[in-house]
């Protein structure tokens, strides 16, 4: 007789735990509670880390599928809109050096690659502005939609900045009240294995023994199940990505009408970079740096210089980070999601999107019985390892393209031995042809599409050789696309409200579901 | 320019009212008590208030902004939206205010608003009733919308019409009641909708969509005549 998989037990109640619970429970709603259960075990004593407040547009689809209201997200999680990221001083380090990585695709992206045309024109316009309206929308401090746009719909593509410490309880309420997730507040004392090495049950302090068929490890850096219990090793990648410490601080606004940036601002420093994320209630600012290249004191001084007088007496929280991921993510009947699976510096807000993608894969591929679980685990590991690899490549891309010579940190980042081989090959290829649509990043669910590579490469001054004859063949289509971009830009810039103004209206009136 | 002032017999004892002038808007807000009369001649659709995102109901009188109504009030079976009838008049708290700059107001022509005893004239009393109906109607609309949204019965509708002169008109930001969703309603909800009177309104709205084709046909005929 086959051993059915009916009881999913998630350990850990942070963003990873509750998102995973919501995604699995929503997908298997019709089976709950008759033939399926989702239980989330959360320690009443462990604080939530709340990494990164930046997200990807995938979160809109995820939240809408889980069935939560976008209006309530704004009301309860201090959310704001995110339309991309501004990378300041990454290329030359000079004062006005910077570029956008927006969330909108280049105009007519699926039909035409505008890169060679933009390169051939060489008219001084930034790549972002030539192909997409979003950089200017961010410059103007505008929201990506209006109060008359339905929930989760966009006029300009967007994701959110949010208060992670409020996001987890928000999801929890919905999971427990609407999706039938069982919430157990208890500390795990021991993990019991069965004879074959699977996890059989959790022994808890307050709630006795909790048995399960599939366990999801969302215990954060502790990696209680995947690491401590099943011994899956951690693959360190600090030889590629050097940053290993973060100093975080919360900065109040001057007044409650101060503008809110609708993009993440990432400003390069001497040996790392500073994130600056605007929520309606405060800014979250932090310095991510390499302790091998700069002392904590120096790093804090750079952080305080960045914030200016507003940050004078604000307390700074130090967070050690370890870049890397598990060697495998699903072993036996245990799968790791979130920080237990790995962590990378929050340069492109990859943490939450990876949680969504992993949970979605688990929910969709949910093994019917133990007998097929190893097949699915192998698939999951293959896909997830690919994703971590691509994120590492993409983050490293930001460092290898720099022209900065002002510190060992930037020089070391360009040493060939610190650059993954796949990225080296791509950089070679891209000197002669630009990345586009599906010719390189061909998975159906890529974390970062080719468009993201275009924005970073050409935002940082990378040059691809362009043969004039190749461009000539599609000039008309390219000109049309760029014209459409200009008219879309004008339309959006006149029609979109100020970012803070829209958030105020959403909190007051709410967005309509249609 | 608008210039709002509270209506008083002292200030406006000599003021007279003319019929409404000017081109009719192509989309006019209406309230549930008008739905049945409106549906005979106009599509009833929902749109959103651009400043709050709140839904309101409206009758489509024309298909192009600035072009006016395609049917005369007579062709509409006498249907004249309350919000057009009250043109120039507003409710301000418990009082009535007027937009003195509205060309309907005159010192010399039209019907007097107050009689010799400084009491509201029949003309003003008619407008008081219109304002009262509208005021009540907005509340009724809000209740209707709340129920339609809760039951997921509203759906966006993109109207794209091609005309004989080659022009293509798109009406955006409009919503209607989904007949499919109505059919899929659970019995308990059907009963609730029926008892609140909203089921009837929902079908009136859903059915009125056919009037779009009639208006498009009319517009084509007018194009041919010109």
Give the CA-CA distance, first to last residue of chain A. 48 Å
So how many helices of chain B?
Answer: 8
Estimate the strand proportion of chain A.
Answer: 15-25%
Poorly predicted runs of chain B are none
Please report the distance between the alpha carbons of the first and last residues of chain B.
34 Å
Please give the largest β-sheet of chain B: 3 strands, antiparallel
Q: Helical percent range of chain A?
A: 25-40%
Estimate the strand proportion of chain B: 15-25%
Structural class of chain A: alpha+beta
Which chains share the greatest interface? Answer: A-B, 12 and 15 residues
Averaging pLDDT over every residue of chain B, what do you get? 95
Rg for CA atoms of chain B: 20 Å
Inertia-based shape of chain B: globular
Structural class of chain B: alpha+beta
Main sheet of chain A? 7 strands, mixed
Structure description:
The complex is a heterodimer of chains A (about 525) and B (about 230). With about 525 residues, chain A is an alpha+beta fold. Helices cover about 35% and strands about 20% of the residues of chain A. Chain A has 17 helices and 21 strands. Chain A has helices spanning about 15-25, 60-65, 70-75, 115-120, 125-130, 135-140, 165-180, 225-230, 295-305, 350-365, 370-400, 410-415, 420-430, 450-460, 470, 475-495, 500-510, and strands spanning about 5-10, 35-40, 80, 85-90, 100, 160, 180-185, 190-195, 200-205, 210, 215, 235, 245-250, 265-270, 270-280, 285-290, 315-320, 325, 330, 335, 340-345. In chain A, the strands form five sheets. A seven-stranded mixed sheet of chain A has the order 5-4-14-15-16-13-17. A six-stranded mixed sheet of chain A has the order 7-2-1-11-20-19. In chain A, strands 8-9-10 form a three-stranded antiparallel sheet, with no helix packed on it. In chain A, helix 1 packs parallel to helix 7 (about 165-180), helix 1 (about 15-25) packs parallel to helix 10 and helix 10 (about 350-365) runs antiparallel to helix 11 (about 370-400). The longest helix of chain A has about 30 residues, at about 370-400. The mean pLDDT of chain A is about 95. By secondary structure, chain B is α+β, with helices and mostly antiparallel strands. Chain B has one domain (about 5-225). Chain B contains eight helices and eleven strands. In chain B, the strands form four sheets. A three-stranded antiparallel sheet of chain B has the order 1-7-6, with helices on one face. Chain B has a three-stranded antiparallel sheet with strand order 8-2-9, with no helix packed on it. In chain B, strands 3-5-4 form a three-stranded antiparallel sheet. The longest helix of chain B has 29 residues, at about 120-150.
């Amino acid at each position: 007789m086959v051993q059915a998989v009916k009881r999913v037990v998630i350990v850990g109640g942070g963003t990873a735990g509750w998102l995973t619970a919501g995604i699995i429970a929503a997908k298997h709603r019709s089976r709950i509670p008759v033939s399926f259960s989702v239980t989330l075990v959360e320690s009443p004593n462990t604080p939530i880390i709340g990494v990164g407040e930046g997200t990807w547009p995938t979160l809109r689809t995820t939240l809408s599928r889980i069935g939560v209201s976008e209006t309530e997200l704004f009301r309860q999680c201090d959310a704001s809109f995110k339309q991309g990221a501004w990378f300041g001083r990454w290329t030359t380090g000079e004062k006005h050096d910077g570029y956008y990585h927006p969330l909108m695709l280049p105009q007519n992206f699926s039909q035409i690659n505008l890169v060679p045309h933009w390169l051939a024109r060489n008219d001084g316009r930034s790549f972002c502005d030539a192909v997409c309206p979003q950089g200017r929308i961010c410059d103007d401090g505008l929201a990506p939609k209006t109060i008359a746009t339905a929930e989760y719909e966009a006029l300009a593509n967007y994701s959110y900045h949010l208060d992670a410490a409020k996001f987890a309880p928000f999801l929890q309420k919905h999971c427990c009240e609407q999706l039938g997730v069982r919430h157990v507040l208890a500390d795990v004392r021991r993990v019991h294995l069965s004879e074959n090495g699977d996890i059989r049950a959790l022994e808890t302090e307050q709630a006795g023994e909790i048995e399960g068929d599939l366990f999801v490890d969302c215990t954060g850096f502790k990696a209680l199940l995947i690491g401590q219990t099943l011994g899956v090793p951690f693959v360190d990648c600090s030889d590629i990505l050097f940053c290993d410490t973060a100093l975080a601080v919360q900065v109040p606004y001057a007044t409650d009408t101060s503008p809110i940036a609708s993009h993440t601002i990432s400003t390069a420093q001497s040996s790392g970079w500073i994130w600056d994320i605007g929520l309606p209630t405060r800014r979250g600012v932090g310095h991510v740096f390499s302790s091998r290249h700069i002392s904590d004191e120096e790093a804090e001084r750079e952080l305080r210089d960045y914030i200016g007088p507003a940050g004078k007496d604000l307390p700074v929280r130090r967070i050690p980070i370890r870049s890397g991921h598990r060697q495998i993510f699903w072993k036996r009947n245990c799968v790791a999601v979130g920080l237990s699976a790995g962590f990378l510096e929050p340069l492109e807000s990859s943490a939450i999107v990876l949680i969504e993608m992993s949970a979605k894969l688990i929910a969709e591929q949910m093994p019917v019985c133990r007998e097929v679980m190893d097949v699915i685990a192998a698939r999951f590991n293959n896909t997830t390892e690919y994703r971590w690899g691509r994120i590492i490549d993409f983050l490293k891309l930001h460092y290898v393209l720099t022209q900065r010579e002002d510190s060992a940190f930037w020089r070391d980042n360009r040493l060939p031995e610190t650059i993954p081989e796949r990225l080296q090959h791509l950089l070679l290829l891209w000197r002669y042809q630009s990345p586009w649509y599906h010719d390189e990043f061909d998975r159906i669910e890529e974390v970062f599409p080719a468009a993201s590579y275009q924005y970073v490469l050409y935002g940082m001054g990378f040059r691809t050789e362009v043969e004039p004859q190749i461009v000539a063949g599609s000039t008309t289509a390219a000109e049309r696309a760029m014209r459409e971009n200009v008219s879309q830009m004008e339309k959006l810039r006149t029609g979109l409200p100020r970012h803070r103004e829209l958030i105020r209206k959403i909190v007051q009136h709410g967005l309509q579901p249609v | 320019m608008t210039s709002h002032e509270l209506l008083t017999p002292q200030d406006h004892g000599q003021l007279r009212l003319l019929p409404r002038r000017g081109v009719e808007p192509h989309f006019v807000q209406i309230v549930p008590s008008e739905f049945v009369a409106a549906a005979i001649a106009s599509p009833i659709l929902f749109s959103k208030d651009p400043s709050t995102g709140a839904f309101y109901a409206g009758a489509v009188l024309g298909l192009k902004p600035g072009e006016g109504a395609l049917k005369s009030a007579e062709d509409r079976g006498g249907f004249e939206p309350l919000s057009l009838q009250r043109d120039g008049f507003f409710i301000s708290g418990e009082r009535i205010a007027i937009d003195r700059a509205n060309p309907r107001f005159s010192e010399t022509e039209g019907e007097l608003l107050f009689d010799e005893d400084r009491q509201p004239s029949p003309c003003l009393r008619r407008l008081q009733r219109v304002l009262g109906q509208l005021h009540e109607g907005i509340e009724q609309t809000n209740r209707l919308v709340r129920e339609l949204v809760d039951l997921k019965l509203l759906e966006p509708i993109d109207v794209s019409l091609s005309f004989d002169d080659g022009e293509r008109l798109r009406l955006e930001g409009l919503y209607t009641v989904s007949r499919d969703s109505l059919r899929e309603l659970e019995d308990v909800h059907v009963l609730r909708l029926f008892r609140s009177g909203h089921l009837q309104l929902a079908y009136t709205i859903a059915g009125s969509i056919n009037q779009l084709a009639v208006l498009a046909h009319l517009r084509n005929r007018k194009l041919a005549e010109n």
